[in-house]
Amino acid sequence: MSTKTTQKSWKRSLYNPKILKNFIFLITKKKIEENALKKDFSSI
User: Fold this and answer.
1) Which of 9, 20, 28, 42 sees the fewest Cβ atoms within 10 Å?
2) In 10 A of CB 19, how many CB atoms?
3) Based on the structure, what is the number of domains in the chain?
């Protein structure tokens, strides 16, 4: 599998709103979890 086909499918998935929503959701979830961890450490 070449990088060209990977980029094509990646671009197609970006245009798919359902996948894009899931992607954004995962990123925001990760950021929220990281922020929660930082808060826990600062409160110790």
Assistant:
1) 42
2) 13
3) 1
